[in-house]
Amino acid sequence: METTDILKRVRKIEIKTRGLSRNIFAGQYHSAFKGRGMAFSEVREYQFGDDVRDIDWNVTARFHRPYIKVYEEERELTVMLLIDVSGSLDFGTSKCMKRDMVTEIAATLAFSAIQNNDKIGVVFFSDKIEKYIPPKKGRKHILYIIRELLDFNASSKKTDVKNAVEFLTSVTKRRCTAFVLSDFYDQGDFCNALTICNRKHDVVAIQVYDRRASELPDVGLMKVLDAETGHEMYIDTGSKKLRAAHHNYWMKRQRTLRDTFVKSRVDNISVSTTDDYVKSLIQLFAMRG
C-alpha cells in the first residue's frame, strides 16, 4: 500500500473513530475501566454500608473499632491492545474483512484511552510476537498505531494466543487494562495463560468473526483455503449434511471459547463483520459499568 493511500485511510479512520470515542463513549469508557487503577489514599472509620472487604484490620485492631481503607482513582491507566495479525483475519464475505473491523475497534479504543489521559501500547501477534509498541500518550502515538494496523505485514500466518498473553504478563509490570482482539482461531489451550494474566491485569476479549464461519451458503461446489496452513480443498455446499457439520463444528468451537473466558473470568464480546461494532462496545462497557 502506498504512503498516500495509508495516510488517507489513517485520516478516515481517525475522523470516524475519534468522533465515536468522543461522542458515544466519552463517559462509558471511563466508568467501565475506572475501578482498575486505584491507589490507597487514607483510612477512616467504618460507616454503615461500607464494603467489609475494605476494612483495614491492622488499624481496626489498634483502635478497637473498625476502620476502612479509602482509595482514590489513579488519574492514569495503561491500556494494552493485543492484536491478532495472523492469516485468518484476511477474510470477509460481506461489508468488510475481519482485519478491517479489528483495526476500527482498536482505533476507537485507542482514542477513548487518550481522551481519558491513559497511555496505550500494542502487541501485534501471530504464533509469535510480531511487534511490540510500548505504551505512550498522545495523538501522534495513536496515529502511528493506526498506520501500523493498516500496513503491518506479519511474518507468520498462524495463531498462538497463549504466547501473546504470556508475553503481556512478562513485559508489563504495572497493572493494565488489556484488550485481546482476535478471531481466536487457535487450536491450542490458552485458558491457564489467560487466567494468570487476568489475575495480574484486567483482560477483555473481543472476538471478531465472519458469519460464513458459522453458516455456509448453499452455492454448490466451492474451493476453500485455510489462510493459516495454506491447505486448499473443494467442498460441496449443496450437501445439507456438510452444512450441518460445518455449523455444529462452529457451535462446538464457540462453546469451548466461552468456557475458556468463563474459567479465566475474562469479560468478552463477539462481533460479526456484519454487526455494528459500536453497539457491541456499548454492550461491553455497560456490562462492566
Structure, described:
The chain is α/β, with parallel strands linked by helices and 289 residues long. It is 43% helix and 23% strand. The chain has a six-stranded mixed beta sheet with strand order 5-4-3-6-7-10, with helices on both faces. Strands 1-2 form a two-stranded antiparallel ribbon. A two-stranded antiparallel ribbon has the order 8-9. β6, α7 (191-200) and β7 form a beta-alpha-beta unit. The longest helix has 25 residues, at 240-264.
Uncertain ranges: none
- Provide the spatial order of strands within the biggest beta sheet: 5-4-3-6-7-10
Please give the oligomerization state of what you see: single chain
Describe the global form.
globular
Along the chain, the helix and strand elements come as HHEHEEHEEHHEHEEEHEH
The averaged pLDDT comes out at 81
The helicity comes to 40-55%
Question: What's the tally of helices?
Answer: 9
Beta content comes to 15-25%
- The CA-CA distance between the termini, in Å, is 40 Å
Taking all Cα atoms into account, the compactness measure Rg is 22 Å
Q: Tell me how many strands there are.
A: 10
- Largest sheet at a glance? 6 strands, mixed
SSE diagram, text form:
Layout: H1 3-23, H2 26-33, E1 38-45, H3 57-63, E2 67-73, E3 78-84, H4 98-115, E4 119-125, E5 129-136, H5 139-151, H6 161-171, E6 177-182, H7 191-200, E7 202-209, E8 221-225, E9 232-236, H8 240-264, E10 267-272, H9 277-288
Parallel strand pairs: 3-4, 3-6, 6-7, 7-10
Antiparallel strand pairs: 1-2, 4-5, 8-9
Helix pairs in contact: 1-4, 1-5, 2-9, 4-5, 6-7, 7-8
